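Can't attach files on this board, so I'm pasting raw text. These are the components:
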Amino acid sequence: MPLRALDTNGYVEILRGGARAAAIRAALGAAGTELVVLMPVIAEVLQGARSAKEAHTLQQRIVDAVPTRRRLFASPSEWAGTGLRVADMLRAGHDPNELKQRSFWLDVHIAHLCRSRGIVLWTDDGDHKRIEPYVHHRVEPLPTSPS
Amino acid sequence: MSAKTTKQTVIEKVRQMKHGKSGKRTSRLGRGMGAAQDAMGGQVVKVHVPRKTKQGHERMQLMVDPRLLDAAVVSLGAKTKSEAVNVALRNAAENAAILQGLDDAMGSIPDFPYVET
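---
Top answer:
Structure tokens for the assembled complex are below.
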């Protein structure tokens, strides 16, 4: 069974609600999908909390609700691998100014974690299109309408 | 050696109806079970009343489509059919917990910002 994880923009859509969120929720519930939660993604989502109440809501619903076994974070070798992927990208001529941005660097880390664990990442973040040629992780666009 | 009284005989018959002749805690097939039995290709299926294992776990006998079970053993890399059932149930329960959290989160912060730093 393939593993799938939502990227930050997927969580933001769900928190906002609406038709797109319903489509994403329906796809996540589809048979044959084993869901995992990437803790670097959760860190990105939590950055958006504007109050203690919002932080509490996020903690309860997208962290505490998730069984511990499904909360994934990098092993020591996967952290080391992230550094090696960034080095590969710099040697291949990728824009060093983009790699200096924390959000882009964290996307490289998320991409490497997905590649390492065989996870399909559901995202609309254009950064992953630019990272994919180096890291070769599997990316699929977020669903736009219920299938 | 005395013959059984009528009362003892009645009690024993009621016990046999409830638990089977051997005294094992086995229920008889109900009406719905007949249809299920047909669906299972005529295979006799007994449904046991929950009982405790030596380790104190509750054990039940369930009806499972054997073709699905064989496929699950292979796809989940399980050593036994029981292990495949348990892995599949655990996966389903973990997925359900994640989805429940997302359902609770749905639309809960309508103006949530997308922050990139």
